[in-house]
Amino acid sequence: MSLKIFLITIALIFSFFPHIVLADNAEQTNLVESSTSALMKVPLSSESASLKVDHVANVLDRLKEKINLFFKFSDEAKANYMQELADKRLGELVYIMTTGEGDPIEELSSRYATHINRLTTLIIDKKLDKNKQSLLKMYGTHLNILNNIQQNFEFESGWWILLQHDINTVKMSQDKLNKK
């Protein structure tokens, strides 16, 4: 009975904190340490300094964001708010890269790409031409920041690939906006 409780507790911990990883040998620990030291070397550019955040949004922060988005009744207000959220997601990526807290990078990278896709889809579907130019400018800034961060990682390493996915997402979104 106590084994079942223990296993359920462990399962709950990993479901609520999916970024926890158990290292089973010294090789994995050394890999994490070398990756973390590479993270701390990421310089802040003047562009990324404007995206400054002091923490990664937790579940409650993201719930507040969803509630705020729900109460944005016009499409333009939703687009403006989603643009702020896209900046915030990129700011979180910059934050974890500069502080060396790289564990949640996969989750944050995915969250960033999702925000970019949703924002682009909203602009196109609702024909929000007013927002199109500011969004294209924002995407250009985001690409510069992502490229600067990516240069700090070994070609085709795990984190380099995640950042490349975000870069590709932004480029595809730019192409979609330019076609419409």
Query: Which strand-content bin applies to the residues?
Result: under 5%
Cα(first) to Cα(last) distance is 61 Å
Structural class: mainly alpha
Number of strands: 0
Proportion of residues in helical segments: over 70%
Q: Give the low-confidence spans.
A: 20-41
Radius of gyration: 18 Å
Helices, by number, come to 8
Main sheet makeup: none
Give, in order, the helices and strands: HHHHHHHH
- Overall pLDDT, averaged? 81
* Shape, principal axes of CA atoms: globular
Describe this structure as you would to a colleague.
The chain is mainly α and 180 residues long. The chain contains eight helices and no strands. The chain has helices spanning 2-16, 26-39, 46-49, 59-70, 75-99, 105-125, 129-150, 158-179. The longest helix has 25 residues, at 75-99. The chain is globular and about 60 Å long. It starts with a helix and ends with a helix. Mean pLDDT is 81; it is low at 20-41.
Secondary structure layout:
Blueprint: H1 2-16, H2 26-39, H3 46-49, H4 59-70, H5 75-99, H6 105-125, H7 129-150, H8 158-179
Helix pairs in contact: 5-6, 5-7, 6-8, 7-8
